[in-house]
Amino acid sequence: QVQLVESGGGLVQPGGSLRLSCEASRIIFSMYTMGWYRQAPGKQRELVATITTGDSTVYADSVKGRVTISRDSAKNTVYLQMNTLKPEDTAVYYCNGRLGALTSWGQGTQVTVSS
Predict the structure, then answer these.
(1) What is the mean pLDDT of residues 82-94?
(2) What pLDDT is attached to residue 48?
(3) pLDDT value for 27
(4) What is the pLDDT of residue 2?
(5) Quick one: pLDDT at residue 65?
C-alpha cells in the first residue's frame, strides 16, 4: 500500500514562506507523477502543482511565480516551496502520487496564512 506523509505546514504571516515535504514509501517513486493539491474550508480540492517523472511541471494560475514543486528521487520526496504567501492560500495541502489509473493521497497538512 502506497504511503504518502506530508510535513512542513503551519501558521505563517502574509508575505512569508513555507516548504512542504511529502515522503513516499512502498512505491517506485521514480515512476510516479507527484502533485500537491489543496482544499480550503467550504471549497473543492484543487490542483496546486504537479511534477512528472521527467521533471515537467504544471502550476495553477493562482500560484504561478510564487510556488515551486520539485522532487528528490534519492529521498523519495516531493517538495512544495511556497513564497509570498497570501491569506487565500490557507488550506489543507495534500500530496498526490499517480501512476496511470492508480492514485494515492497523503493525510494532508494545514497551511494557515494570517497576521
Answers:
(1) 98
(2) 98
(3) 84
(4) 84
(5) 97
Which of helix, strand or coil describes residue 88? Answer: helix
Q: What is the CA radius of gyration of the chain?
A: 13
Query: Which residues, other chains included, contact 89 with Cβ-Cβ below 8 Å and sequence gap of 6+?
Result: 38, 63, 82, 111, 113
Task: Give the chain's end-to-end CA distance (angstroms, integer).
Answer: 40
Segment 27-48 mean pLDDT = 95
Residue type, 10: G
Position 106: which residue type? G
Question: What's the rounded Cα separation, in Å, for the pair 49 and 5?
Answer: 17
54: Cβ–Cβ under 8 A, 6 or more apart, which residues?
Answer: none
Decide if 3 contacts 25 (C-beta within 8 A).
yes
